[in-house]
């Protein structure tokens, strides 16, 4: 009997201990969860509240037979308002549907229905509101408001229709429907820095080393088909978002390869990190071509604050190329190896220096 009890306890606590142990070695966040950390666009359906109905009623009191109409108006439905909040950093907290509350209906004794209070959507500074590609608002100030859907007006009660011609109107109107629309919210800056390079240069590998993002890495071109954003966290809690942009190829500005859409993403980053595969024959050629593609897409795009990340320095053929590259370009060259992690700390520091020396507005 006693033994059985002991065994039972052992099983129970043993289970708990194992659970604890699992907790400590909890697996890393899944890619799906990580991608939620930084969301740069959202499609949102907004449905404002409808107005409350007007009431139709007549005053009634003892000894006062013809009290007259006293139906009140309905209240207005809730507006949906986008509000900029500098504490919000990405669109991950924005839901896909917002519905405003309906206004209250009017009632007898001339009681008006209550207006519904507006529904707010908190977005980061630098959010664009678009509808079918057309920009409706560019929200760049903390606290800025934009009413994206208007609530319906309340209906009129029958008291409203009282006139000399009609002393006993029965008419009361229903509340109007709230406005309904589908808008795209888009962050003007997608990330602070973009990793720009040809396929297979090691952009995704680098992002995995310097940030929490886990984009797929493989030894064939076009492994990455959509941008990934990783967050680099510094000791003073400053966080910088770095985007892994899918590989560009010559002619990308003519929509070749994965095309123009990714150049558009680069446009939304303030700092550029050109990732070169140093084991290739002439890595400086890659740099020239990348700049050419960017500038063809948008003049001066490649002239943003930039640095060259000379990757794959662990490979023997890379070492000879490094000096040659340095003599041909005048940008900062940071030799790293995403594979071994060599010198990536230097890259992280340099990124911060670039961020600090080029404030947002410059
Ligand atoms: N030896 C060596 N190999 C590397 C290094 N960095 C990346 N690689 C390898 O290069 C290949 C391509 O790496 P990815 O990180 O997928 O390259 P990418 O630039 O993201 O490529 P796309 O997504 O196709 O544009 C993989 O096989 C990596 O293991 C490095 O520093 N040294
Ligand atoms: Mg990749």
TrEMBL record:
InterPro entries: G_OBG (IPR031167), GTP-bd (IPR006073), GTP-bd_Obg/CgtA (IPR014100), GTP1_OBG_dom (IPR006169), GTP1_OBG_dom_sf (IPR036726), OBG_GTPase (IPR045086), P-loop_NTPase (IPR027417), Small_GTP-bd (IPR005225)
GO molecular function, one term: GTPase activity
PANTHER family: DEVELOPMENTALLY REGULATED GTP-BINDING PROTEIN-RELATED, MITOCHONDRIAL RIBOSOME-ASSOCIATED GTPASE 2
Name under which the protein is recorded: Mitochondrial ribosome-associated GTPase 2
Similarity section: Belongs to the TRAFAC class OBG-HflX-like GTPase superfamily. OBG GTPase family.
Domain Obg stretches: 36-190
Keyword annotations: GTP-binding, Nucleotide-binding, Ribosome biogenesis
Every OBG-type G domain range: 191-356
Region (Disordered) residue spans: 50-72
GO BP annotation list: ribosome biogenesis
GO CC terms in record: mitochondrion
């Amino acid at each position: 009997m006693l033994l059985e009890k002991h065994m039972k306890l052992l099983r129970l606590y043993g289970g708990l201990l194992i659970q604890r142990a699992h907790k400590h070695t909890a697996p890393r966040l899944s890619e799906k969860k990580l991608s939620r950390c930084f969301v740069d666009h959202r499609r949102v359906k907004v449905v404002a509240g409808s107005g409350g109905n007007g009431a139709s009623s007549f005053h009634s009191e003892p000894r006062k037979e013809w009290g007259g109409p006293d139906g009140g108006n309905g209240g207005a439905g809730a507006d949906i308002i986008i509000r900029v909040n500098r504490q919000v950093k990405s669109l991950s907290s924005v839901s896909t549907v917002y519905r405003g509350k309906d206004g209250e209906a009017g009632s007898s004794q001339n009681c008006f229905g209550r207006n519904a209070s507006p529904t707010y959507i908190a977005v980061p500074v630098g959010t664009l509101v678009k509808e079918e590609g057309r920009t409706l608002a560019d929200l760049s100030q903390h606290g800025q408001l934009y009413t994206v859907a208007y609530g319906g007006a309340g209906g009129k009660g029958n008291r409203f229709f009282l006139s000399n011609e009609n002393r006993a109107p029965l008419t009361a109107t229903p509340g109007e429907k709230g406005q309904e629309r589908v808008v795209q919210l888009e962050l003007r800056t997608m990330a602070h820095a973009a990793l720009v390079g040809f396929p297979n240069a090691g952009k995704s590998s680098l992002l995995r080393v310097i940030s929490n993002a886990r984009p797929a890495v493989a030894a064939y071109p076009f492994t990455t088909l959509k941008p990934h954003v990783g967050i680099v966290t510094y000791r003073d809690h400053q966080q910088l978002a770095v985007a892994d942009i899918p590989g560009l190829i010559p002619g990308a500005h003519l929509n070749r390869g994965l095309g123009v859409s990714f150049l558009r993403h680069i446009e939304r980053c303030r700092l550029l990190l050109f990732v070169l595969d140093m084991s290739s024959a002439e890595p400086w050629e890659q740099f020239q071509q990348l700049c050419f593609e960017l500038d063809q897409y948008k003049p001066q795009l490649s002239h943003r604050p930039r640095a060259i990340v000379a990757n794959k320095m662990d490979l023997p053929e890379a070492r000879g190329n490094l000096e040659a590259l340095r003599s041909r370009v005048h940008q900062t060259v940071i030799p790293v190896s995403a594979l071994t992690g060599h010198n990536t700390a230097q890259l992280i520091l340099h990124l911060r220096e670039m961020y600090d020396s080029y404030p947002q507005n410059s």
